[in-house]
Fold:
Amino acid sequence: MAVTFPFSAIVGQEEMKRALIIAAVDPTIGGVLIFGDRGTGKSTAVRALANLLPPIRTVEGCSYNCDPGKTAALCPACKAKLALGPDAAHIREIAAPVVDLPLGATEDRVAGALDIERALVHSEKAFEPGLLARANRGFLYIDEVNLLEDHLVDLLLDVAASGENVIEREGLSIRHAARFVLIGSGNPEEGELRPQLLDRFGLSVDVTTPQDIGQRVEAVKRREAFDRDPDGFIAGNTAADGLIRDRIVAARARLPVIAVPDSIREAVAGLCVSLGTDGLRGEMTLLRAAKALAAFDGDDSVSNDHIRAIAPAALRHRLRRNPLDDSGSGIRVERAMTELMAS
Amino acid sequence: MTQALQPPDPWLDACRAVALVSVDPAGLGGLLVRSPAGEVRAALLVRLRRGFLSAGEAKPPLVQIAADVSAAQLLGGLDLDRTLALGRPVASRGALARANGGLLTLAMAERMSGATAALIAAALDSGETVTERDGFSERAPARFGIAALDEGIAADERPPAAIRERLAIHLDLTALSHRDMGEVAAVDIGAARARLAYGVIPDGVIESLCAAAAMLGVSSGRAPLLAVRAACASAALDGRNIVSSEDVTFAARMVLGPRATRLPPSAQPADEAPPPPEEREDDNPSPEQNAEGEVKALDDVVLAAAAAAIPPDLLRLFQENGQRAHRAQDSGKSGDSKKRGLRGRPIGSRRGDLRGNGRLDLLETLRSAAPWQKLRRRQAPARDAIQVRREDIRLKRFKDRQASTTIFVVDASGSTAMDRLGEAKGAVEMLLADCYVRRDEVALIAFRGTGADLLLPATRSLARARRSLAALPGGGGTPLASGLAAAERLADEVRRKGRTPTLVIITDGRANVARDGMGGRERAQSEANDAASSIRAHHLKAILVDNSPRPEPKARGIAERMGATYLPLPIVNASILSDAVRAHHAKPAAGAPR
Structure:
């Protein structure tokens, strides 16, 4: 694994960082889409996030990262192992997986397929798990998501909706859990994203190049320092990264007890109505994201500030598009919020 | 000081830039050379290769790939020959992994697709390739420098933005001939590489480069970083450990100048040529002012150096438009058409029969044969090879792009211009909205006043369409001939990229400006008729939408000459127009062979 630039050393891009952290606090939010200019640190931020995720407990040797605490969702191999008794399976902590779905990946490697080597050489029928299995309970990252081939997009939509990967091919019939946080990034100049896939993402952020010279200089300086001495640079940021990780862990624990006042629910509903977002998904995502943000900030309940901070990311990709409106969707969300929350 | 006032020698610059790339290939990404194939480019590439070969003891790999390289060739995958010979899957190494530690040359990079570019860009960013293909899952180091050869001629024939963005050095050698190539001594690349790690960047250098980037409208965060690295490589090349102002100005000229999207706010555009370069004596690296003044001076020098390298065509655009010029960003697509169903994007495989002209998907075929091997060996023990039967055969499926490009040619003249433009804009937007599904592109040409403008080069991107449409002007005379000629040119370009152009012309057909920009109804009309005949001669599909209050015989005449469908629509309605275009796609072109 190549060394990654530390998350805490990324200059600016607060909305993108916030969205990624929220997705780490509450994986059920539905992932993050990062759209923006080239050279704004999109993939850097996602790869850096991998180092912030708390480790997960899993059965040693399991290809699907099974959670030993959830007996109902175990894969057959783990079920058999754990049934033999507590000592039959080694439980260990591993780093939460952040799996890259590289462009050009073929369907068999994404979904998993018959292990061809074992089939040809040993005449055994064995399943070779793919990237979706590896990403279970972690993150799946697709850079240049708008260039992803259509049949892979269909596959991902299926799996993301059901949390389960079903393989029916070559005489194999296998289903395994595949719950992951989908992170996509791309450049709008390369083309639009299919609406079905767009809707799948919980949060969507637009990143732009900082206009502030000071920030740009700082970003170049840090990157230069990192290239010169990666290990030293990472060591200098370990503490700051650790702090964020601790806050994510604490926020996950606090998430169930974060209160959502009725006034906030009404405000959120009002906001979604005034923006004309389709369906309830926007509303639910916004509330969830605001809760996760409150938990990360160490607050007990969701406030207007949390909503204000996260509403553009939760709603901008759910607005009816008016192609001739030059102002971005994020600005429309902010305008609506200012009107509603002026009091 | 006459020397300092001379523009920099482009050949010397190019040679030095090439040396920088050999010194720090992974840091700089590489170089982009826009030039037709010829002596100058060949000589430069020889220097580049020599630089790589002379740098270390081990011979670095020199890998060349074509624009239509497949993902399998780039990333590796199943090695067919050895897999069949050995009876077990064997992986082949992709071009990206093979180029590790060396130089990767992209031939005809202007024809490379965005998807291919994204694969290369991912390797440039991470220094490794990740392959998840054909049952293999591998990571391999892939740190290399790139020489992207751009033989594009038209403004929008350029390598994909993802590649351009990541290559530090952009050279344009189009104007150079072999007479401009002076003797340039070879340099010791190995020593410079060793020195690179010890380079010191004085205070103010990064600030100057970032400031210059911002002033020139270079928005990417990568550009200043690449410029800093280029300055370091330049210092190392000259055997210095401290980056000097010369290094910085050279980096600004090579990295920032060609990326400029606007002129610096204070500078006035020069006449034809680029403005004279550094008017200060920047070859005097230690101004005797105080520290603050020194930084200020460096800022100015760097900006002036970068501004001097702004491409002349861009300068002209700045002058004409007085605003940000949108340079086309589209990439060339692979061109030669093959049989239907055998080209396009692979979309998995299906059971099939090899007697048709399908393409065998060997891996899937082996996979489907695999479970039965034990059984079949029992049935036919004489054969010990893999037993593949007809029912195992799997064929690759491809989705033909059905790629079409709709070129809107809009009459933006006169008083009704704003209404017509509004309608045309609406139609373009509507077509664009489903273009993701149909993989269509749209382009927009408007004609008014004295000529025609390409307002929106062929694109599928809503983001770009929105920007271009917002700036669509109206008013003036009707240079119909110029509009038709521009449309034909664009249609030709589109065709060369392997796509099918369709023209949608919205006009009342009453031409009153000739191609040279002069008024005169008669000449304008006869030129328009000629242009229309020429479109027919090129077998272009066309629709002419007549938006005059009642059907105009002149418009009908033009449509007939063009072999176009004539559609009188006094009130152009975006959805009717959009439906008409969709219906029209199915029809063959007038007089076309098929």
User: Anything to note?
Assistant: The radius of gyration of chain B is 28 Å. Chain B touches chain A through 80 residues (CB under 8 Å).
